[in-house]
Amino acid sequence: MAPVIAVTGASGQIGNRVARRLAEAGATQRLVGRDPSRLPELPGATPAPPATYADGEAMRRALDGATVLFLVSARESADRVREHISVVDAAVAAGVRRIVYVSFLGAAPDATFTFARDHWHTEQHIRDSGLRHTFLRDSLYLAGLPAMVGPDGIIRGPAGDGRVSAVAHADIADAAAAVLLGGDAHDDLTYDLTGPEAITLAEAAAVLTRFAGRPIGYEPETRDEAYASRAHYNAPAWEMAGWVTSYEAIATGEMSKVSNAVPMLTGRPAQNLAGWLTTHPQSWSHLEP
């Protein structure tokens, strides 16, 4: 019997593309979300009853009958790990046999980037569940680089001269679809999903300058300066720590790894920043003079 693949986040950038790739391949899917009206209508796909990650019983009902779960990580929050655990436990109760989880590059209990620690704890719970699993550890999103630029055209953060192997959402999604369709050949494996190169934020600023038509620069900050320059957002402590430590993880080299997993899984090169900006002009239109 063909597997039934439950896809979370099917209205988002990664989950939606995964669902469409699976539909093109003729897979049977269950699309999971809190608002079924936002889920795409695709051949072979049915919407699951509404469910949030935090509601374990609703998630169990949504996953009932699925054999594979594609788990897109929850939005960053103070309760993120607990939400992930709720979904994994619901998957076990529903009879799911395999999880493909979107994690983060360098996930570890002592990772500099605090959100990468959350991903490691989620990975560990999936391992402890006894389910077959594959972890997709993606680097920082390419979409995040133009978003780092302030109104004055400057990227600021404590990244030093470290490098980041930023990756496109589409490359993550296409790699995920290949893993989901590849079955047990990917069991118990971890793939680092990165762009084709690791660049400094100064190099990223130079690329953005060419597209924006005005100077974009990078100014390194100390940790104290980074917290001070972001204080006006009045963000909770966990969120502020995530912002600042994402830059610090670039400085330490924890985001610099370049992997061949995207071309190996998808059969095409991973996108670099210039190529991605060319096909996503809306991502940098706010930078134009």
UniProtKB/TrEMBL annotation:
Origin superkingdom: Bacteria
Residues of the NAD(P)-binding domain: 9-180
Stated name of the protein: NAD(P)-dependent oxidoreductase
Source species of the chain: Embleya scabrispora
